[in-house]
Design a protein that fits this description.
This protein is an alpha/beta fold and 243 residues long. Helix content is 39%, strand content 26%. It has a single domain, classed as 3-Layer(aba) Sandwich (Rossmann fold). Helix 3 crosses helix 4, helix 3 runs parallel beside helix 5 and helix 4 packs across helix 5. The structure holds adenosine-5'-triphosphate and magnesium ion.
């Protein structure tokens, strides 16, 4: 069953059309990858889907409800949660308290929220860091914390915006494995990522954005061999490696 649908969404910033007439859909449990050059409009599309920007045109449907124009917290309450490309922990709060903020999305009970937050931190391999200040974490730690915060909100679907940017290969592999496990629990994902290895190992399907428009969509192996995609984004070399 379809979980998320964006219908012809458009976002303009003054004279710039950052996203133009974009439609996409994600099924329950599916991982959709979104790729495209810098400035293509990926984060803007993300922001429209998650309620941070109002589309100028078009609608967003999630879990059968029209969520266009809802605030981010309302969207999150319905089960659609997102990370930020530039990670935003509360630096003066402990790792546990950062995740607690997310857990209160589903419960007002302090003990229940604490238990949920601890379970998630254990799952992310951060069980021994609960009392550390978030501001002191490494880049990899912050990226994990960002995923923990999102998971704590109890989502049906997660939007990840470059969750693996800036990580070393081994750290990337660890997050790929975690994302796979999250997916196996039935959570759908929309994955914006420049690291092609991540996209190729996780995505069931890919959409390619260029100048705010969708230029290709389909199975990963087919999309990376698409001439328009190679010209706009991948270049011959990457396409050969990925294929
Ligand atoms: N708040 C904003 N105000 C004005 N212009 C914006 C704003 N946000 C994005 N843009 C512009 O919209 C276009 C799309 O930007 P966006 O951040 O969506 O690209 P992206 O695909 O996420 O790029 P990257 O891969 O570098 O993260 C760019 O030209 C960008 O400069
Ligand atoms: Mg972006």
């Amino acid at each position: 069953m379809t979980l998320l649908e964006a219908h012809n969404i458009t976002k303009r910033f003054g004279g710039l059309v950052a996203v133009n007439d974009l439609s996409l859909s994600v099924s329950e449990g599916e991982i959709l990858g979104m790729i495209g050059p810098n400035g293509a409009g990926k984060t803007t599309a993300f922001n429209m889907i998650s309620g941070y920007y109002q589309p100028n045109e078009g609608r967003v449907i999630f879990d059968g409800k029209d969520i266009t124009g809802l605030r981010p917290d309302q969207v999150c309450k319905l089960g659609l949660a997102r990370t930020f490309q530039v990670v935003k922990p509360f630096p003066q709060l402990s790792v546990l308290d950062n995740v607690l903020v997310g857990a209160y999305n589903r419960t007002n009970d302090k003990q229940e929220a604490q238990q949920k937050a601890r379970e998630i931190l254990d799952f992310l391999g951060m069980g021994n860091m609960t009392e550390q200040l978030a501001g002191g974490l490494s880049v990899a730690g912050r990226k994990r914390l960002e995923i923990a915060k999102v998971l704590a909100t109890g989502p049906k679907m997660i939007l990840l915006d470059e969750a693996m940017a800036g990580l070393r290969p081994i750290e990337t592999d660890e997050i790929i494995e975690l994302v796979r496990q999250i997916s196996q629990q039935g959570v759908a994902l929309l994955l914006v990522e420049h690291v092609m290895k991540v996209i190729m190992s996780l995505a069931d399907r890919i959409v390619v954005i260029h100048h705010g428009e969708k230029i290709a969509e389909g199975e990963p192996q087919a999309v990376v061999q698409d001439k328009a995609v190679i010209d706009a984004y991948l270049g011959e070399e990457v396409a050969n490696v990925a294929g």
